[in-house]
Amino acid sequence: MVSTILGRKLGMTQVWDEEDNVVPVTVIQAGPCVVSQVKSEATDGYDAVQIGFGDIKASRVNKPMKGHFAKAGVEPMRYLREVRVDNAADHKVGDVVSVADFEGVKNVDVTGTSKGKGFQGTIKRWNFACGPITHGSRNQRRPGSIGQCAYPARVRKGLHMAGHMGHERVTVKNLKLVRIDAEQNLMLVKGAVPGPKNALVQIRMA
Question: What's the pTM?
């Protein structure tokens, strides 16, 4: 069984649970994902399957990928990801991974690219405290000293400073899978799903 599916983050809404409590959820259009390649211990050194998601025009596919999809006998797909499996012999090219496979799953791990926030200072990026606002202080949002004097006489690696924030691979674990809709290929997840709207996300059974 493939424990991972690819999807697209659509947005947020709210649903009611069995006890009539309002639950805020993120709607993810997940799958169907088609297996486009199977890797085994004998041929590649490890067991894994390659799954694809998303439609793409044939004219947008380059020649190497056209040959890859033609060899597998599947339609071209926009995104390809590799997923480790326990036994590659249990899978074959053309198998479909859908949200129905997540029936009965309570929690999932969601991986995606976080929202980019550009160049930010230390207060927003690392939650530094502000300096005194009144009494003539000019140190409201400055980072402060960054090194030592005689030893080591340099700035240590990894020091929290201003810089690019966001737009990085993030995995949020143990989010609650509230509901699935197999007919519309939808998953309703409660929690902080990384990325903006229409972003690609990877959902794995926790």
Answer: 0.84
